[in-house]
Specification:
Blueprint: E1 4-5, E2 11-12, H1 17-23, H2 28-37, H3 39-48, E3 52-56, H4 60-71, E4 76-80, E5 90-91, E6 94-97, H5 99-105, E7 109-112, H6 117-127, E8 131-133, H7 134-141, H8 143-152, H9 157-172, H10 176-181, E9 200-204, H11 210-219, E10 225-229, H12 233-250, E11 257-260, E12 262-264, E13 269-272, E14 295-299, H13 301-305, E15 312-315, H14 321-327, H15 329-335, E16 338-342, H16 349-360, E17 365-370, E18 378-383
Parallel strand pairs: 3-4, 3-7, 4-6, 7-8, 9-10, 9-15, 10-11, 12-14, 15-16
Antiparallel strand pairs: 1-2, 5-6, 13-14, 16-18, 17-18
Helix pairs in contact: 2-9, 7-9, 8-16
């Protein structure tokens, strides 16, 4: 049985025998069970938004949560973080405090915006502070749209099984659900995404060229053109080093693979580079606070290609996948490329990416696959039947 939530927060249980039969054995019943168990907490979190709320974790996920919660009416927010280096600082204009200070500030609700949900949950229980994971809250806030994507756009049973598993992980913070449905061949997991010898392949977020290399093996080195976009200086240097080797190993011409030291977004502009903890460079096209002084170029794919074809677009761009797709709208409408889009950075991407693509190209088939044993590397695949 399906469970939706309308705009007033009232849970609705429509009846449909055909839908119930379609959902048999997929995990949707468990999703509904978790939703029911969280209903009171969800209501309390919604009531708390205009009051004082805290966000546990001030990394990229926390920054995204802050922006979203503000859009939903949060008035007074602060970050809580276990990292002493972050405590006492301000992130996006919001104070970062240690856990002990959070107890004194007594927020009405704490939204967990970090990957280690289970450990932080235990910590907050010891602190006697009310909490809900940001992922779980987003799922419950958007149940109607999630249900519509699941039942209307995901036509294969495997996609619904994977979708339900990821939802269960988001609702509970338990990563084992992702591990149960994990599979390999990321970005090339479906038959439609392997073996075509005439691809114009766009790798958005090419990093060090690992996906480009897998693409070469998947196509046996036969393709039309590769565009590899990577905005980070160090990853781009590694990408160029790898491409020098690959050109020699695969007898590739210089012009067949174009490496572009830039990001992709909704429009052409320069943006600050974000250096995350541990030296990992990511999120160049995000709008979060500038941490380093490095500035990178961002293009819209439509502007960069200027009408040239794209037949396969892969995107893993640290949470701005929707912006990238908006900047590629003309290309997508014209060429209907195969798409392998990461949808794990933002909980809203679980439904928003599918909705947007179907609005652009109603003929798109949509599938979901999970490529990591944790809440990462969830990929949406879209293609048009030949």
């Amino acid at each position: 049985m399906m469970m939706f939530c309308n705009t007033k927060g009232v849970f609705i249980l429509p009846k449909s025998e055909s839908i119930c039969e379609m959902n048999a054995g997929t995990g949707w019943a468990e999703v509904n069970s978790y939703i029911a168990s969280l209903a009171d907490l969800y209501a309390h979190a919604t009531e708390a938004l205009p009051k004082c709320v805290a966000i546990f974790g001030c990394g990229s996920t926390g920054k995204s949560a802050l922006s979203t919660l503000r859009n939903w009416g949060a008035q007074s927010c602060f970050f809580v973080d276990n990292d002493p280096a972050r405590q006492g600082t301000r992130v996006d204009g919001v104070d970062v405090v240690p856990p002990a200070k959070a107890i004194e500030m007594a927020p009405e609700m704490v939204f967990i915006a970090a990957r280690a949900v289970s450990a932080i949950r235990r910590q907050l229980e010891q602190m006697r502070l009310p909490y809900i994971s940001f992922d779980a809250y987003c799922v419950m806030r958007h149940l109607e749209r999630i249900g519509a994507v699941r039942d209307n756009l995901l036509r294969d049973t495997r996609s619904r099984v994977v979708f339900d598993a990821v939802l269960k992980s988001m609702l509970t913070g338990c990563t084992s659900y992702c591990a149960e449905v994990m599979e390999g061949a990321q970005y090339f997991a479906l038959p439609q995404f392997a073996g075509n010898c005439y691809e114009h392949f766009v790798d958005a977020g090419a990093f060090v060229g690992d996906t480009v290399e897998r693409f070469l093996w998947t196509t046996n080195g036969a393709f039309a053109r590769i565009y590899a976009f990577e905005p980070g200086r160090r990853p781009f240097e590694a990408l160029c080093t790898r491409m020098k080797r690959l050109r020699a190993e695969w007898a590739l011409t210089e012009e067949s693979v174009v490496c572009i030291p830039a990001g992709l977004g909704e429009s052409c502009k320069e943006m600050g580079w974000i250096a995350e903890a541990g030296g990992l460079l990511q999120g160049a096209t995000c709008t979060a606070s500038l941490i380093s002084d490095e500035v990178v170029q961002v293009y819209s794919l439509d502007a960069y290609l200027e009408g040239r074809p794209a037949t396969f677009i892969k995107a893993d761009v640290e949470g701005v996948e929707i912006e990238l797709l908006r900047g590629a709208a003309a290309t997508i409408r014209r060429f209907c490329p195969k798409l392998a889009i990461s949808i794990y950075h933002s909980p809203e991407d679980m439904f928003a990416v599918a909705e947007y693509l179907k609005a652009l190209v109603p003929e798109y088939n949509i599938a979901i696959r999970q490529h990591a044993p944790v809440r990462m590397e969830t990929v949406l695949y879209a293609w048009v039947d030949e």
